[in-house]
Amino acid sequence: MRTLGYRCLWFFLALAILVPLYAYFQSNLWSQRAEAREYLEAGYVVPSQFSRILACGYKGLLSDYQFLRILTFYGSRFAEQQQMVDEDWDYFVASIDVITDLDPYFIDPYVLTEGLLTWDAGRIEDANRLLLKGAVANENNWRLWYYLGFNSFYFMKDYVGGAEYLMIASRVPGSPDYLKTLSSRLAFYGGKTKTALLFLKGMLADTDDALLEKRLKTRLLALEGAVLIEEALVQFRDQQGHLPGSLNELVSSGYLHELPVEPYGGDWLFNKDARVFSTSKFTHR
Amino acid sequence: MIGRIWALALVTFKEGLRDRSLYGIFLFALFVLGLNVLVAGFFMRDLGKVTVDMNLSALSFAGLLLVFFIGINLMAKDIDKKTIHLVLSKPFSRGEYIWGKFTGLVMFVGATQLVLLVFSSATVAVVRWMYPNFFAGFSWGIFITAVFFVFLQHVLLCAIVVFFSSLTSSSFISLIFSLASYIVGITLEEVVFYLRTPTANEEVAGAEFLQRSLEVVTWLVPNFAAFDFKLEAAHGLALEFSHLGVTFGYACLYIMLLLILASVIFSRREFN
User: Fold this and answer.
1) Pairing of strands A268-270, A276-278
2) By mean pLDDT, which of A182-191, A204-213, A245-254 is the weakest?
3) What's the predicted TM-score (pTM) here?
4) pLDDT for position B268
């Protein structure tokens, strides 16, 4: 009986020392990990030819995992309000390249490319290269041709190329009817901001992801503001014979009730062709 | 003869079902299938693809664990623990022993895969019910075909396990050789085709020599990657009948040749 009592005593004594010690180390370890992860470094991406071998027959699963990693990477930058630097975008492009080499029919990476690589990174050529890879592999997916059309039109000012991509998109069975109208509109009135507005509305109607949807809505708000000002500018020029000296003149002379809010926090600008821009370039700085 | 093979197969099958590791492997597979329901929501629109990817990968990986941990045990234990003397004292030929063990292994893997398929189909059905808009390209026919070829891959692996067990008396060496054959077989295709590209010729020293050596390996080790239709199932891409037929024939012939070879080697072996 006595030995049993001693054993119990030792047991509880050991627990009384070890458990608090473990609790101390456990909480320290996790807080250290949290600190270490505050700034996730852009990692190295194993090139496609090796990833395909290392996947050991689980290429689809590896592509899903890589995609989740890049989503988490961007998500953590976005949540911590950290600027994506060039190195981060290199990592992003390399990851999407590998993911789409592992599974070229995986559409989500292309959607993410269109959502981030164009507006935020300004890497239109990379975006179009990736999208073209996807569009060729998934000929029956009108969205990828549509994204290519939008990028050519809006960022590259290639209205003819943009209209051609849109024509391809409109010929895909099951594509929305407005693509044909948009394509012909693009061919005639390429340079108008209103065309971009139609594009964005189409994209928004087709987006399910909450993060991308929020970003598109902000962009749509910005472009709606730009279109409103452009229309007032044209009206002013038609009636007065010249463009106003500043945008405030539009308000003071009654062409606009007030200047629309620029959702990215920049200042509205316009050029001699009455096209409206913003100092923010419509991205979060 | 068939009766004796069948009797041995049945004993092997029952012995496999008695293995406790089976529960662990089942739990692992069920965990992955459950995880699938949670993870699917993280993706934007390819939920169907991710679901099929995860399901087929869980089935395939659980099958590999079954073959490598339980299958090798079933095959090599007789030799390792010398119980083979008891078995061979019965009116069995050594060839019948090999075919009987192989049939038992295949029955065991087949039965477990069938149970996992039921759970997996239920998972797909649940995710599909939760997100009906994202399963446009999904087809049960292609999904089941892909599962069948995953099973065929495991049958081939069983034959390899039987072959190596007939060569060595240590289950560990059988495991290492079978595992190595699987890794070579699953990666071989990618390496062979990579070496054929112009970039490989510039970047890899001795690419031509490597290419020729690998040509020899392609005759010896089965191309496991050919049985992988996970991508097609994930995106509902149509499968060509001729493609499936050639893969099926390739597997059957490889298995038969390997088992005949294993029977010959096993017949000449001496047990101490």
Assistant:
1) antiparallel
2) A182-191
3) 0.78
4) 84
What is d(CA A161, CA A169) in angstroms, rounded to the nearest whole number?
13
Give yes or no for a contact between B267 and B94, defined as CB atoms under 8 angstroms apart.
Answer: yes
pLDDT (tens digit per residue) in B67-107:
998 888 888 777 777 777 777 777 778 888 899 999 999 99
- The answer, yes or no, to whether ipTM is higher than 0.85 is no
Looking up tokens 């309000």 gives A81
Does residue A16 sit at the B interface (CB-CB below 8 Å)? no
Residue-wise pLDDT for A75-122, tens only, equals 888 877 788 888 889 999 999 999 999 999 999 999 999 988 888 888
- Span B178-203, average pLDDT: 87
A178-192 burial string, b = 16+ CB within 10 Å, else e?
ebeebbebbeeebee
CA distance linking residue B222 with residue B153, whole number of Å? 10
B49·A111 Cβ contact <8 A? no
Subunit contact B234:A105, Cβ cutoff 8 A: yes
List CB contacts (< 8 A) between A63 and chain B. 53
Q: What is the average pLDDT value for chain A, to the nearest integer?
A: 84
Separation CA B233–CA B243 (nearest Å): 15
Rounded to whole angstroms, the Cα distance separating A230 from A260 reads 11
Helices and strands per DSSP (H, E), number in chain B:
12, 0
Q: For chains A and B, count residue pairs whose Cβ atoms are closer than 8 Å.
A: 70
CB atoms A108 and B44 under 8 Å:
yes
What is d(CA B213, CA B235) in angstroms, rounded to the nearest whole number? 35
Segment A126-131 mean pLDDT: 93
A174 touches chain B (CB under 8 A): no
Which range scores top for mean pLDDT: A280-284, B155-159, B267-271?
B155-159
How many whole angstroms separate alpha carbon A133 and alpha carbon A136?
5
- Residue A56 neighbours by CB under 8 Å, 6+ apart: B183, B186, B187
Task: Tell me whether residues A111 and B45 touch, CB distance under 8 A.
Answer: yes
Residue ranges covered by each domain of chain B: 2-267
Cα–Cα distances (Å) from A129 to A86, A88, A144, in that order, read 18, 18, 11
Q: What is the CA radius of gyration of chain A?
A: 27
Subunit contact A60:B231, Cβ cutoff 8 A: yes
Tokens of B42: 């993280």
pLDDT, mean of residues B33-61? 87
